Amino acid sequence: MEIEIKPLTHALTADYLDFFDNRAFSDDNLNGPCYCNAPVMDNAGIRHMVGEFGDDCKGVLRRYAAKQLARGDIHGYLAFDGAVSVGWCNAGAMDTYAVNDYQFIPDFARRNARGKTVSVVCFAVAPEYRGKGVASALLRRVVADAAAEGYDAVEGYAQVTGERKDIDFKGPVRLYEKAGFREAARRDGRVVMRKEL
User: Fold this and answer.
1) Which residue(s) pair with 19 in the sheet?
2) pTM given for the model
3) CA separation for the pair 107, 118 (Å, rounded)
4) Which end of the chain is more exposed for a tag (fewer CB within 10 A), N or C?
5) Measuring CA to CA, which residue among 29, 28, 44, 35 is closest to residue 90?
């Protein structure tokens, strides 16, 4: 298996939607349905979207994602096995993420940021590819691109837990540690894992 990591562009919209339509949560993972909409939405926008769910939660999430993708609001990387998208990492400049009740970037992390920072807020990997290094490959690409673009640091916001959980979309502490990240702050069960560039 050779995984290729590509930055999300408008040309990859169909691959992004196909991943969330068909593979991301095909094991009935508790995070599905999801299209990684909320990290860039404020509370009012999230409430409005949720108010439209009715009997078609997935359809509404997909529709919102398509609009966000068309505007370039969603940032990150897709992992491919051949022509098939098998993984996703939502990562971009910290200031492109909304402040909302979901705390994709915890408030204490924003207050303690180190210069120009890329934030990693979400991973999703197709069930049959989990545990095979896809998230690590995604994270390596995030770090390489952030360094090339002159960022000061890359941060992830992990839950503090000692066990593997497939529903932990933030990525475990050990994932970040393997990539050379160090703990920068901790509060209320969340830890800021930072790699200075």
Assistant:
1) none
2) 0.94
3) 15
4) N
5) 35
- Report whether CATH 3.40.630.30 matches the domain 3-196: yes
pLDDT tier, 168 (very low <50, low <70, confident <90, very high otherwise)? confident
pLDDT tens-digit map of 53-92 = 999 999 999 999 999 999 999 999 999 999 999 999 999 9
**Residues 102, 148: contact at Cβ < 8 Å?**
no
Q: How far apart are CA 42 and CA 99, in angstroms?
A: 6
Non-local CB neighbours of 135 within 8 Å, separated by 6+ positions: 87, 89, 123, 125, 171, 175
- Using a 10 angstrom Cβ sphere, with 0-12 exposed, 13-18 middle and 19 or more buried, the burial of residue 56 is exposed
Locate 76 and state its tokens.
């990150």
Enumerate the domain spans of the chain: 3-196
In this structure, the number of other CB atoms found within 10 A of the CB of residue 44 comes to 9
